[in-house]
Specification:
7-stranded mixed sheet; Rossmann fold; elongated; binds S-adenosylmethionine; about 375 residues; alpha/beta; about 25% strand; about 30% helix
């Protein structure tokens, strides 16, 4: 089989986290995607190869970009196996390359995603065995080819994951804290905040520095995948290395230095500040971020700032009362010391928003893993 689905229609699929639908669509359009249509936790879009490389290299909000190979009715494991064998996997893999499969199933006869992935794996390795008497290996952590199997209402879609894995793994996270924010979520918060990249930005609960680093990447126009060692699109049969190198060089040349005093943050925990500094050091564009170890209660005033942060929630603190008390005091700090600023606060536990004692003028529901969080905006006068 050749002439895969993505080749017939130049259509791809961009996955995103819950709540990021609008932000993801706006970002895709700004990167040159056309015919954007909303699907389940993602958008279908059209793109020529150059636009596609640009999207995979620079998207901050999408978590995966998929190139669909085939889709088909799939009511049984036998049918999955047989249909998967119609693809000539030698177009994507050799015996020395590794692969891995992520799978999701919903509302379908094949209910177990791990089992469905196993069937697809068997179809691939059996095909290689028939041809060569040997098979390529699976490498779940750093595969050369990352496949995605999605079965919804008994329709299956097999795709190549063009980033070669989840794009939230930017490569700068060397050290972490207990509840780090996911990189795509931090980028979504920044997108929603419409930060103008001129107003000083501050995170008073910066933890491992995710929001600060994503802000630095945004302000310096650093491609989100700048540190990524491999891309899944390298394995496409029609991959064009000359065009990819041109796009990559162009985007790398567009990066700007980070103005000193534009982005800063603090945290009460010296270990968190150490982690944030280590992560910042991994990314040259972030080196002008200023960090301080401090309780927010001891910070100087933050007038005329964009404050963007996620305070600790329930699981990190000993009691709900302590959580409520901390947020009340943070609300007082915002009221008393942040004139002319706008605060964007992400609450992993939405009921905690009330404890701040301030009224947001807008709220956005945004999922983080299995947390139904919200982002709330507070103009401070
Ligand atoms: C939910 S985490 C923030 C995670 C961060 N966004 C990241 O990506 O790593 C909350 C942070 O608040 C810090 N914290 C708790 N109490 C604080 C206080 N009174 N002042 C400043 N930071 C505090 C914790 O040390 C923790 O790192």
């Amino acid at each position: 089989m050749s002439d895969y689905l993505y080749q017939q229609h130049q259509q791809f699929f961009a996955q995103h986290a819950g709540g990021a639908q609008e932000a993801a669509a706006t970002e895709l359009a700004s990167l040159g995607a056309t015919a954007i249509q909303t699907g389940h936790l993602g958008h279908y879009f059209k793109a020529d190869p150059d636009t596609l490389y640009r999207i995979v290299y620079t998207t901050r909000i999408s978590t995966r970009i998929l190139a669909p190979l085939i889709h088909f009715e799939c009511h049984s494991q036998n049918y999955l196996y047989k249909t998967a064998q119609q693809i000539d996997w030698r177009e994507f893999l050799t015996l020395t390359k590794t692969f891995a499969i992520t799978a999701n199933t919903a509302d379908s006869k094949l209910r177990n995603a791990t089992y469905a992935a196993q069937i697809l794996k068997d179809a691939i390795v059996d095909q290689f065995r028939e041809h060569y008497g040997e098979r390529p290996n699976v490498n779940p952590r750093f595969p050369d080819l990352q496949l995605n199997l999605y079965i919804h209402q008994n329709r299956a879609r097999i795709s190549i994951d063009l980033g070669g894995g989840s794009l939230h793994k930017r490569g700068y996270r060397q050290e972490s804290v207990t509840a780090p924010m996911q990189e795509n979520l931090a980028a979504t918060l920044l997108h929603i905040s419409e930060w103008d990249q001129k107003t000083p930005l501050y995170d008073p609960f910066c933890g491992s520095g995710t929001l600060l680093i994503e802000a630095a990447m945004l302000a310096t126009q650093t491609p989100a995948a700048t540190l990524r060692p491999k891309f899944g699109f390298l394995r496409l049969p029609d991959f064009d290395p000359a065009h990819w190198n041109q796009i990559k060089t162009q985007l790398n040349q567009n990066t700007q230095p980070l103005s000193p005093n534009l982005i800063a943050g603090s945290d009460i925990d010296p270990a968190a500040i150490h982690a944030a500094q280590t992560n910042i050091n991994a990314l040259p564009c972030a080196k002008n971020i200023q960090l301080t170890t401090s309780d927010f209660r001891h910070l100087p005033p933050l007038n005329h700032h964009t404050i963007i942060t996620n305070p600790p929630y329930g699981i990190r603190l000993q009691t709900p009362q302590q959580s409520a008390q901390l947020l009340k005091e943070f609300g007082d700090y915002l009221k008393q010391h942040c004139t002319g600023s706008t605060a964007f606060i992400y609450f992993g536990e939405p009921t905690l928003a009330k404890k701040l004692g301030l009224k947001p003028d807008k709220k956005w529901p945004l999922r983080a893993g299995n947390l139904e969080g919200i982002l709330a905006r507070y103009p401070l006068y």
